[in-house]
Amino acid sequence: MKPIIKQQFSVTYRYDIHFTAGLFTPENPLLGRFFSERLEDAVPKLLVVLDEGVAKHHPILAERIHDYFRDKPAVDLIGEIMIVPGGELIKNSRENVDRIIEAVDRHGIDRHSYIMAIGGGAVLDAVGYASAIAHRGIRHIRVPTTVLAQNDSGMGVKNGINYSGKKNFVGTFSPPVAVFNDNLFLLTLNDRAWASGISEAVKVALIKDAAFFEWIEAHADRLRRRDSDVMDYLIFRCAELHLQHIAGADPFEFGSSRPLDFGHWSAHKLEQLSGFEVLHGEAVAIGIALDTVYSAITDRLHPGDAQRVLTLFQKLGLPIFHPLLEGNGTTHPLLTGLEEFREHLGGRLTIMLLQGIGRGVEVHELDKERVLRAAAALQEGVNLVS
Amino acid sequence: MKPIIKQQFSVTYRYDIHFTAGLFTPENPLLGRFFSERLEDAVPKLLVVLDEGVAKHHPILAERIHDYFRDKPAVDLIGEIMIVPGGELIKNSRENVDRIIEAVDRHGIDRHSYIMAIGGGAVLDAVGYASAIAHRGIRHIRVPTTVLAQNDSGMGVKNGINYSGKKNFVGTFSPPVAVFNDNLFLLTLNDRAWASGISEAVKVALIKDAAFFEWIEAHADRLRRRDSDVMDYLIFRCAELHLQHIAGADPFEFGSSRPLDFGHWSAHKLEQLSGFEVLHGEAVAIGIALDTVYSAITDRLHPGDAQRVLTLFQKLGLPIFHPLLEGNGTTHPLLTGLEEFREHLGGRLTIMLLQGIGRGVEVHELDKERVLRAAAALQEGVNLVS
Ligand SMILES: NC(=O)c1ccc[n+]([C@@H]2O[C@H](COP(=O)([O-])OP(=O)(O)OC[C@H]3O[C@@H](n4cnc5c(N)ncnc54)[C@H](O)[C@@H]3O)[C@@H](O)[C@H]2O)c1
Ligand SMILES: NC(=O)c1ccc[n+]([C@@H]2O[C@H](COP(=O)([O-])OP(=O)(O)OC[C@H]3O[C@@H](n4cnc5c(N)ncnc54)[C@H](O)[C@@H]3O)[C@@H](O)[C@H]2O)c1
Ligand SMILES: [Zn+2]
Ligand SMILES: [Zn+2]
């Protein structure tokens, strides 16, 4: 008997991200084609789960979905379109994940069936998680309806829900089988939600693509005025950069390095402190501002470049500080947040900073005193280049 | 804006299956070496979860584990060794999965920490599931303690728990980071548990390896008499064949073909009907007997070869029929089971049959009348070659 067997294999994932307008209008061939091209021996079932916030703003959507699939023989739409709470609410208990699993059982949905989630990042995360664990994985289609979900979370491979106040404490890595980005959904977002998703584009531009950063700078006013063509390109390029990153190295994050978490260590803390009153993208803008100023204070980044980042956020209508990040004497929330992030990563602390516009650099320690100094500068609105 | 982005990437998994005796004896270097070779920047934590049935038969095991890790600086054993119910009980509610997730939270176990499960296939399935979803995946080590878990489920990539009476209704595909097969655990199994694990070896031999089948035939008496050397080889070869199969094609079962489920469609039904009184391996022996006789009745397999299979099970002390599979007038449990399996697979029904010893063949339909005829033959103990 040999004392050891070495096992090794790879699993390949492929999925397309489609960009369209009016996904469920009768003339739009995309979804119909998707199902007919994938048709195997049996017609698969399709369960649609819809974000309540989206349903409210698009009252005839459910009917349109029924109409759309009526003449599509390659897929069998389940009559019940499931409405679930939107926003962090759906992730804060497992009630809705349970409802989906129960529906999977009741409708006899199998591993060759599909579950489509239509909604913001929170609904995609929760429905994606339910889809990943029911029958050890039902094919999952994402239709993101916010800027953030269309340019970031919707193309990603992570899902999950919260547990006793801890973000994404349970979840899996499991890619969708397709993503459909429909820009018409964005029309019903309020201004805060519209703006907040842009910070993920600023993030990925800052660490990977100077030209894209300059493009965002040049189009900041039109983004603020909600120009759809400009937003289309922003989402497309941001999605592309995210996707390249995921495919490039360590898609399931077995290592410690998580470059796409630039600006996120303090953002997570702020979201949590605010009870998710501060939107993810707003918190990320503040987190990026903090790590950008820190990069300047520690002589990695030219102060003029740091100032460009702050100016851009202001033009976009995004915050760069929040009172909840003020110290109150004893332990500073930012230092607590840093420790929590270290614990969350496990192993070694790895944080992305900037050494130029478009050039991220990873470090393994932050200097606490200078973190607080960066925060104080943001709070006071100090002009970095003065 | 281009209307589509095509995403593609692969995720590679590597893990070793170690064969040893006395994993936690002070002289055994395996586990110590495992952790010191993998040491990164921070010392990882290790949570051990132990099958209550194993703990009962190995009362000093917990103490030995503490002793073993006392002088291992490359890993930080968490003081609490968690005892969980053994057998199907642990899979029939999510209570114990919740307990593990709660422990992950309480002990600050992160994605670079380890959760080790020591136990039968049921405990490995439930602990593996908890490990896969907590923090989107904590490194999972398996120490299987039954024949079935050492030669089959322990090396696999599947985990899960049951849901409203349905086997493995929630779960994930997620490989362990290492498997340690310790043959001393097998000494405390009762004769039924010992014998039942052998049927998975017969299964994989029948569909893939005629020489291995002949080896099992030649060693059936010694297996029955619980000869450890013979069992060591049986487990090693069976594990090897399972691992090759998993690595060879479609490890996460995206398609419909599941050759390793030979004999399992009726086995699942029988386990369920018996409230899991019939052991998995016993049910599999019966399921294999059924599909073997069916293969003969449908002229795929020589009746003499079918008879060899039945004779082998009898020599090994394994059943080839169970009264719960008798018809009772209206719907026959086997026909119900077949429909449930079809639904479970989704898409196309795919069932493995035999066209020779060591040569499986997939079919997409079973003839109901001949399924019942095969069952009747087994019930009456008909001699196939007479
Ligand atoms: N999985 C990942 O990789 C990943 C990455 C980043 C963020 N996230 C998660 O995404 C979530 C945030 O997602 P989000 O920013 O998309 O917001 P959200 O999902 O929290 O939604 C915010 C609100 O907008 C509503 N809404 C959604 N679409 C709408 C539309 N078209 N019109 C009007 N209202 C609409 C929702 O009902 C909700 O009330 C967080 O839970 C975050 O953790 C996940
Ligand atoms: N994940 C997979 O790929 C896969 C494959 C096959 C089977 N399974 C699952 O495995 C389970 C069956 O596993 P099993 O056959 O190992 O039995 P088991 O886990 O059900 O255990 C049976 C009993 O034996 C006890 N036990 C375990 N080890 C012992 C030892 N060394 N000495 C004395 N008692 C011991 C347990 O406490 C339990 O009471 C089923 O739930 C089945 O679905 C999973
Ligand atoms: Zn983000
Ligand atoms: Zn089995």
Automatic annotation (TrEMBL), chains A, B:
Biological process (GO) annotations held by this record are:
amino acid biosynthetic process; aromatic amino acid family biosynthetic process
Q: Single GO molecular-function term? A: 3-dehydroquinate synthase activity
Q: Which residue intervals define the domain 3-dehydroquinate synthase N-terminal in the entry?
A: 82-194
Per UniProt, which keywords does this protein have? Amino-acid biosynthesis, Aromatic amino acid biosynthesis, Lyase, NAD
InterPro entries listed in its UniProt record: Dehydroquinate_synthase, DHQS/DOIS_N, DHQS_C
Chain coiled-coil ranges:
none
Domain 3-dehydroquinate synthase C-terminal residue range list: 197-322
User: One Pfam family for this entry, by name?
Assistant: DHQ_synthase
Q: Which PANTHER family match?
A: 3-DEHYDROQUINATE SYNTHASE (PTHR43622), 3-DEHYDROQUINATE SYNTHASE, CHLOROPLASTIC (PTHR43622:SF7)
Protein name, as recorded: 3-dehydroquinate synthase
Tell me which species this is from.
Parapedobacter pyrenivorans
Q: Which gene encodes it?
A: aroB
